[in-house]
Specification:
Elements: H1 12-23, H2 32-44, E1 49-58, E2 64-73, E3 80-89, H3 92-104, E4 108-116, E5 119-126, E6 129-135, H4 140-154
Antiparallel strand pairs: 1-2, 2-3, 4-5, 5-6
Helix pairs in contact: 1-2, 3-4
């Protein structure tokens, strides 16, 4: 993919399915710009769960505590709810996954987080299904948090 996006090898089949769905009706290949627009829409432009505010700090010698305010969208009515949640874990991403599980009612486990070319990618298991997300941010921590959130937003319901 262009625009400096180098997807992790294991993420490529997931993105290929997104591209296939988008191009099936047209019968033509997507342009570089269309591929990037599909990537942004699938991974960087939000979803039913939004992170309104957050903080993460050390909690003990080997752990982290993540506190956040999540906005969640009801899939049936479209109504949004807002609530504070917190989680703990060995890594910041695991603590965020714990907070997401509390806020969404979904089981979230972070399997891998990797930075590449200005983006961070996270493979998560959401309700038992492996799914990838991507994030960008001013810091590696912020990009990782957004990548985990992207994975949760992209997971099937």
């Amino acid at each position: 993919m262009h625009h400096g996006v180098d997807l992790p090898e294991r993420m490529r089949p997931q993105f290929a399915r997104i591209v296939q769905r988008a191009t099936d009706d047209s019968g033509r290949e997507a342009t570089r710009e269309e591929l990037y627009a599909l990537f942004r829409a699938a991974h960087l432009d939000g979803g039913p769960v939004r992170l309104a505010s957050w903080s993460c700090y050390p909690d003990g010698p080997d752990g982290h505590r993540f506190t956040c305010t999540l906005e969640t969208e009801d899939g049936t009515t479209g109504a949004r709810t807002r609530g504070g949640h917190q989680g703990t874990g060995g890594a910041a991403s695991a603590a965020f996954a714990d907070a997401l599980a509390d806020g969404t009612g979904r089981a979230v486990d972070v399997l891998e987080v990797v930075g590449r070319g200005g983006l961070t990618f996270a493979e998560c298991r959401v309700d038992g299904v492996a799914v990838w997300g991507a994030g960008e941010g001013a810091t590696a921590l912020e990009a990782g948090v957004r990548a985990v959130l992207s994975a949760v937003n992209g997971a099937p319901r």
